[in-house]
Amino acid sequence: MNQDTEHLRLLAIFHYIVSGLAALFSFFPMLYMIIGSIFIFAARHGTPKPGEELPPEFLGWIFIVLGSFLFLLGIAMAICILIAGRCLSRRKCYSFALVIACIECLFIPFGTILGVFTIVALSRLSVKGLFSAATSEVPG
């Protein structure tokens, strides 16, 4: 096994690991959804103390929508990282893996490290040759 195939194999494994971490961390925005639900419940069923007002109900909906959006965005990113790892292991979809590696650089620290190493590995001509050889061997 030459060095390029070993690097691609390791990068694929690390993509699987970072995908799992991204999926795990995408559950944190659900705290916003819980807070929003508490605001809505308090606005509908709460009794204000003298001289105080209850939080408006729309504030709870803002929290719920924001939390849902961030959760779905995190899960979508985790799935894309997982697919990129699969592309690296099969040596297919070179452009997709490269674009996801660039996007991963935004997620400090694990995504940045993995993204930079993936970009460096995919930039080598020998690795590009592995991807083009894998696509030419596929029976059409």
Would you write up a description of this structure?
By secondary structure, this protein is mainly alpha-helical. The protein is 79% helix and 0% strand. The chain is built from six helices and no strands. The chain has helices at 3-25, 30-45, 57-90, 94-104, 110-123, 125-137. Helix 1 (3-25) runs antiparallel to helix 3 and helix 4 packs antiparallel against helix 5 (110-123). It is rod-shaped. The mean pLDDT is 89.
Write a concise keyword list for the protein shown above.
0% strand; 140 residues; mainly alpha; 79% helix; 6 helices
Write the layout of secondary structure elements.
Layout: H1 3-25, H2 30-45, H3 57-90, H4 94-104, H5 110-123, H6 125-137
Span of the ends, CA to CA: 27 Å
The number of distinct β-strands equals 0
Rg to the nearest angstrom? 22 Å
| Average residue pLDDT | 89
Order of helices and strands: HHHHHH
**Dominant shape:** rod-shaped
Can you give the helix content as a percent range? over 70%
Ranges where pLDDT stays below 50 over 5 or more residues in a row are none
The description of the largest β-sheet is: none
Structural class: mainly alpha
Number of helices, counting only DSSP H or I runs of 4 residues or more? 6
- How much strand? under 5%
